[in-house]
Write a structure and sequence with these properties.
The complex is a heterodimer of chains A (254) and B (356).
Chain A: E1 2-13, E2 16-27, E3 31-35, H1 42-49, E4 57-62, E5 65-66, H2 72-78, E6 79-82, H3 94-99, H4 112-124, H5 140-153, E7 158-162, H6 170-185, E8 189-193, H7 197-203, E9 206-211, E10 214-219, H8 226-233, E11 235-242, E12 245-253
Parallel strand pairs in A: 3-8, 3-9, 6-7, 7-8
Antiparallel strand pairs in A: 1-2, 1-4, 4-5, 9-10, 11-12
Chain B: H1 3-37, H2 45-53, H3 59-92, H4 105-118, E1 123-125, E2 133-135, H5 138-161, H6 167-191, H7 194-204, H8 213-232, H9 234-242, H10 244-249, H11 254-276, H12 282-294, H13 298-322, H14 331-349
Antiparallel strand pairs in B: 1-2
The chains are: A alpha/beta (254), B mainly alpha (356).
Amino acid sequence: MVNIKIENLDFAYNGSLVLNKIFDEIKKGEFTALVGPNGSGKSTLLRCLDKILLPKNGSIYLNGKNFKEIDRKILAKSIAYVPQSEDEVFQSNVFDTILMGRKPHISWMPTNDDLEITAKVIEKLDLSEFSMKYLNQLSGGQRQRVYIARALAQQPKILFLDEPTANLDLRHQLEVLDILKNLTKKGISVVVAIHDLNLALQFCEKIVMLKDGKIFAKGGKEIITSKIVENLYGVKVKIINEDERFFIIPEKTQ
Amino acid sequence: MNYKKVQKDYLKYTARKKLFIIISFLFLILFIFIGITFGSAKIAISDIFSALFGSSENTITQIIVNIRLPRVLSAVLAGIALSVSGVVMQSILKNPLGSPFTLGISNAAAFGAAFAVIVLHAGTLHSSTTDSVIINNPYLISVSAFFWSLTSVIIVLLMTKLRGISSETLILTGIILGSLFLAATTAMEYFADDMELASIIFWTFGDLGRASWRDFFILFALIIPAFLFFIRNRWNYNLLDTGDETAKSLGVNVNKVRIFGLIIASLITSITVSFFGIIAFVGLVVPHIIRRIIGNDERFLIPASAIFGGVFLLICDTIARTIISPIVLPVGIITSFVGAPLFIFLLIKRKGRGKW
């Protein structure tokens, strides 16, 4: 079953094209890695896919329904987005921030269920001891886990994450990706914009490569060859295959 | 830590905030009674009850029912309007220095009120020293105040659309707009005759002295629904605090929430200004005191600021009426003298760099 279909998507900032004729689909329960050099349009694409940015041309469909016809509130019940960072002027604590993920489901006041879902997500993401702390008292990695937790509390069917592992230590990188992997087993589609190709290869079954706003290549793990990575980043790499696990090692810049 | 413990801790934490709101509300009731008893005519608490529930028609009852009660209740409403507008403007503009006064909205409204009296002849002028202008068309004055305050709002909104504008620049724009409207009001003063001059000056400093039951009911009819509108949007404002992207992603129609919030906030500000003149600093100081006590969660911040705003203005007005009794000072003077140093104190004590 197709969850999201992207057709001929263009997006421009101040007249310059950032995304150019993107076609793709996101299937139910699929774990997709969006990779590409800095400025290739990964974040912009994710923002378009959550209707945060409106495309210049082209359409996005959620289960056959055009995004334009879907109210933002309804969309928020299906799609969650985790930004790279946020800049809160007025600080709130961890629990309150994660509880905001329940907003699309709350009509007047959060119910006990909302509080329980929030508390469970906090436990799952190893944030219990910070639950009453303000966000500015946390480290970058802890804050990132809070944003991920908020998206999980939203209980979406599709989850977009912009560099979710960028600020995390090794253990939490693996834990967060494990949690996301488990979500995909429950039928939730996950798309991560990610720089670490090794993590992408280890966890994701689909890789989409973006370069200069265009899809450069897409497919399963098999599309990652030293040639294609070299063309994408302009860096020579060696790919090591060890027991069907692939490791990419950069050699030197051209 | 088990999730049940996390949930229990949170419930305790919100219970404390609810308790604070309930206690503030009791204080508000207490200060309403205190406000009625204080003044040039001595009134006992028992007189209030006999005036409200008894059938006596003596002078004390007259003073309570016709003078003190509308004044005290209007002070509460004006306090609610200014504080809640401050909270909402701060959240909508993501700017801790936002308030009706610092965004130039109060000055614009005062100009609009003066404009209505002088140019549109909404008031009858006469030379009594206590009351130099009789408002025979409060609606026209309020409409004019609102119209001019909207010009400030629109300029502020357009400024926020500029990329990379800092919160300080936005506030500077507001202060410049305020000065511009003050200059326009002063220009009208320059060409006004003595009686007109007296009426214009009235709006440049806030005074609750003319509060009547009619004023109270008009204020009530606008401020309470506006307050409920803000309460209804409390989650939206919380989400705006996290940033536009996250707010949109969680289903908030950011532009709509922002524009309607600012319009409603400037509506109740301009109504308050058109009745009582500029009462400075309430909308800035009250939200900051409450932020320090119960945090930035709009679910608690909006009602707590409303209640505390009522208490704050009530106390300031009681001081204004009694400090050099029998002379009654305009409350705007007291709020500025209390508010300005308090705000400087808050600026010095603000948590961390750029965080509130």
